[in-house]
Amino acid sequence: MLILILIFAVFHSGMASLRDAGEKLIGERAFRVIFAGISLPLAVTTVV
Q: Residue span of the signal peptide, if any (predicted)?
């Protein structure tokens, strides 16, 4: 369980720290879709 939480934290924080660069590179909406596509499944897996 701790490993799942750490994986989620690393991906979520890492993607959040790249937000400015990612939005400039691919656009705001595309970055948010990719962020959600990665973050939500990891969150659900961690909770369930």
A: 1-16
Residues 15-44 have pLDDT tens digits of 889 899 999 999 999 999 999 999 999 999
State both tokens at 8: 């989620």
pLDDT at site 26: 95
The residues, any chain, with a CB within 8 Å of residue 13's CB and separated by 6 or more, are none
pTM of the model: 0.76
What is the number of other CB atoms lying within 10 angstroms of the CB of residue 31? Answer: 19
Burial of 2 (0-12, 13-18, 19+ CB in 10 A): exposed
E-state strands within the chain: none
